[in-house]
Amino acid sequence: MSGSKSPRERVAPHISCLPRSGIRDFFDIVSEMKDVISLGIGEPDFVTPWRMRESTIYALDHGHTGYTSNLGLTECRKACCEYVETYFGASYDPFKECIITVGVSEALDLALRALLSPGDEVIYHEPCYVSYAPTVRMAHAVPVPVVTREEDGFALRAEAVRRQLTPRTKALLLNYPNNPTGGDLTADDKAALARLAVENDLIVLTDEIYSELTYGERSPSIASLPGMHERTIFLHGFSKAFAMTGYRIGYACGPQDLIEAMMKIHQYTMLCACGFAQETAIEALRKGQKEMAAMRDEYEQRRNVIVKRLNELGLHCFMPKGAFYAFPRIAETGLTAKDFALTLLRRKKVAVVPGTAFGPCGEGYVRCAYATSMKDIETAMARIGEFLQEIRAGK
Amino acid sequence: MDTCEKRRKILQVLQARARLTAEQIGDRLQLPAAEVAALIEAMEADGTLLGYRALVRPEAAGNGEVRAIIEVEVQPEREGGFDRVARAIARFDEVRDVYLVSGRYDLRLEVVGDSLQEVALFVASKLASIQGVKGTATYFLLKKYKEAGFVLEKGEEYERLKVSA
Q1: Which of A163, B14, B50, B138 has CA 20 to 30 A from A305's CA?
Q2: Is A256 among the domain residues?
């Protein structure tokens, strides 16, 4: 028909401009292959401990299948706040300062949407979890990455943040121990970042999802430092330490006004987190410490083995302080991170994730998750050894 | 890590995986293989490490043994309480485990034999006749579902996504 209007853009520009996750591309290739040893998996290889699964079954058996209050079960919020107070040294009121969410992913989305106006800036560190920049963009705000380096243990330094401050800087987003590097912040790093946040009136979002999986001393959470309670949103969940990824259950603790704002978005978009997952979370927090510690000890042993092997193979690897990822440098092979990962996968059927999936500064690195059996780790290391020999021989 | 801590960590690894080499244990614990080997040897010598045994599916090794749990009621003695009787029982090769327990009876044994008759005969002729044994109750084991933390019937494996963030 003549005179018809040119078709309107169907997808909103701030969504269509989001890049596809680098992980997604990889996933599609790996899914088609057989007998792959995957060091690309960002979730525990342990099944959820029976103690927790049994409590889910109990909840279902007793018909606990309805909605809960928007904030989540009172008992679940109490359990979260008790836990955060005991292990992180930050106290929150379960009735006003805590919300149960569908994983940390939802909690982060709620926090960002509650805080940000179009054009506001959020400073965070790269390499980092793949969702940070997109989640900031979906809140119509501007992600401002700060590069972290191996020589600093991949820690975010306050002076590097200071250089990126503008009048629009609203929040600082942290994830330590870190996916994908395994880096962590020292008590001094946290104190310096806290001072900077207070001086510049920033809100700090701290994604603590790997905190229990810290090997060695864990420094107190930034949420517990002086002046930080009023400006920190503490985000945590059950996926990693308690091996409950599929339950999609997490929580946020923070000052009342911010939790109230997050609750508004949550009540209209999600209503509540799954009730029987909340009951399972209570069991995990109050009774699941032993199971969690056993998994952490096993991860620590795997970390020691995989890092030693990688270094023996000539891939320099930083000793991760936490989480379950090794982040070896592969730049010396002459391959880009993506080519290294793709060629390794095709030739040796070992899947690793290119460092660039976690930000451009991940170039020269790959992420090897050690949330897989020691046997698979050893086999994968042997195959990577063969691969490196082939490359060095110019094949 | 002090020596005490090292010994404890090595024992924890061995309790779960006794076949690991000193080098493999060392890699897991960030200790030199030679040091691990020396500590293991010392613990074998001082009786901390009693031995290593394979956990085997019943009958797989072909020794077709019959097992029984036996409760033993004992007359305690003025000197030594239950110790003399417990030690006397522990000397028999048929007896795998001996525990002093709280509750209705005093000693709990696990006994093995080639047949029901053999175990029954052992109870009647050897065990019950020990001076100080007041009574026994024998429970033959019919089927094993879990041993030392290992569930014998494997459930189906759940496959994770092959790559995830």
Answers
A1: B50
A2: yes
DSSP string for residues in B67-124: EEEEEEEE--BTTTBTHHHHHHHHTSTTEEEEEE-SSSSSEEEEEEESSHHHHHHIII
How do residues A163-194 score in pLDDT, each as one tens digit?
Answer: 999 999 999 999 999 999 999 999 999 999 99
Residues of chain A in contact with residue B27, where contact means CB-CB under 8 angstroms, are 304-305, 308
Q: Are residues A281 and A300 in the same domain?
A: no
**Alpha-carbon distance B47 to nearest alpha carbon in chain A (angstroms):** 26
Of the partner residues A27, A45, A130, the one whose CB lies closest to the CB of residue B162: A27
> How many domains is chain A partitioned into structurally?
2
- Domain span at residue A302 reads 13-48+290-390
Residue-level pLDDT at A149: 97
Same domain, residue pair A245 and A111: yes
Q: How far apart are CA A347 and CA A243, in angstroms?
A: 32
Instruction: Give the C-alpha separation, A104 to A88, whole Å.
Output: 17
Find the CATH number of the domain harbouring A138.
3.40.640.10
Predicted ipTM of the assembly: 0.84
A353-373: average pLDDT:
97
CB contact under 8 A, B162 and A42: no
Kindly determine whether residue B30 and residue A304, on different chains, have CB atoms separated by under 8 Å: yes
Are residues A225 and A272 both part of a single domain? yes
Amino acid letter, A164: Q
Q: Which chain B residues contact residue A372 at CB under 8 A?
A: none
Measured in whole angstroms, how far is the alpha carbon of residue A167 from the centre of its chain?
Answer: 28
* Packing angle, helices B3-16 and B22-29, rounded to 10: 120
Enumerate domains of chain B plus CATH numbers: 3-45 (1.10.10), 66-143 (3.30.70.920)
